[in-house]
Specification:
Oligomer: single chain
Distance between the termini: 90 Å
Radius of gyration: 26 Å
Largest sheet: 14 strands, antiparallel
Strand content: over 45%
Shape: elongated
Order of helices and strands: HEEEEEEEEEEEEEEH
């Protein structure tokens, strides 16, 4: 299953969930997690395919669910494919891994695809007629793939916003990675805030900031979709991985301004799912463990302080006794 197929499924799933509830598309919050794994029979047989899809729709007043998780595994004829996906509001995690034997059947391909999607309604209340939100999210993914026969990307992340009144949809940010680990990203000028990059070939680590327009007291949708696929042909024994299991993570709404760029202090954010989007889900950086030499210096320092304190205590006793 290709990235394009998974993406079409995610869009259809969200639309069907909304239609079934008698409301327009994206008039609620949705979580979708999908996983697909395939190990074909290189001799022309049907092979083995495993799929798992989880969909939840949340309407105003409904209880907020936990994370959705989907997983799939398929093995056969020397191949093993595994995929996983987790979706929660503010969280996309996907993983795909596949291996193939060295059988010189290049058109037999084992594959794995994981896809995670969430969308939610967000309403900003403030005395101003509208303005801009500054939002952040962190993205981290890795792939080691080669000999990729699909024209589509090995990994794709898309962040979108939608006007619920008109249905107009815009894509402020898109990132794609090909099978060789090369990345292409688009941070559209009208939404530009900042983008910090620290990428190596095959390893993407980014903190992305966007400016999102809003109309006060009018709901709009925020949409986050992440897809990862791994493919391995049967012409060389190899293991291919697409790992985005540590991201994408919502970094929070960091501020709001009016249409003239003046900071707002009276704004509040409300979401259909009940998620607090002002809160960052990115874990704080963990302080490094001290080196052995540093530990030695600390121990010597503590011993010296202890000696000074003991001498000071003896001096006080001597003066008191005298």
């Amino acid at each position: 299953m290709s990235v394009q197929t998974i993406r079409a499924f995610l869009i259809a799933a969200s639309a069907m969930a909304a239609i079934a509830a008698g409301s327009p598309a994206f008039a609620a919050a949705h979580l979708v997690a999908g996983a697909n794994a395939r190990a074909p029979d290189a001799l022309g047989g049907p092979g083995v395919t495993d799929r798992d899809f989880q969909i939840v729709s949340i309407f105003p007043g409904a209880p907020r669910p936990g994370s959705l998780h989907a997983s799939a595994e398929a093995g056969g004829f020397g191949a093993l494919s595994v995929s996983e996906a987790t979706a929660d509001f503010g969280v996309n995690r996907v993983f795909a891994r596949t291996s193939s034997p060295d059988l010189n059947f290049p058109f037999a391909i084992s594959s794995a695809v994981g896809s995670s999607h969430w969308d939610d309604e967000l309403t900003i209340s403030t005395a101003a007629p509208g303005g801009f939100l500054s939002v952040e999210f962190q993205f981290h993914a890795f792939t080691n793939q080669s000999n990729f026969f699909d024209a589509g990307p090995a990994l794709e992340y898309i962040f979108q916003i939608r006007d619920l009144g008109t249905g107009n949809q815009q894509t402020p940010y898109r990132l794609a990675m090909d099978a060789n680990g090369n990345t292409t990203s688009f941070l559209f000028p009208s939404f530009r805030d900042f983008e910090l990059t620290g990428d190596n070939d095959g390893d993407v680590l980014r903190l992305v900031g966007l400016r999102i327009p809003f109309v006060a007291n009018q709901a709009f949708a925020i949409i986050s979709s992440l897809t990862c696929q791994a493919r391995a042909p049967y012409d060389n024994a190899n293991v291919q991985v697409c790992d985005a299991n540590s991201t994408s993570l919502w970094g929070g709404i960091t501020g709001a301004t009016d249409l003239n760029g003046v900071a707002l202090t009276d704004w509040t954010a409300r979401s259909t799912s009940g998620t607090d989007y002002t809160r960052s889900l990115i874990p704080p950086a963990v302080a490094g463990v001290p080196e052995p030499a540093t530990w030695a210096m600390l121990i010597v320092g503590f011993a010296a302080i202890g000696g000074v304190l003991r001498r000071d205590a003896r001096a006080r006793r001597f003066l008191a006794e005298g």
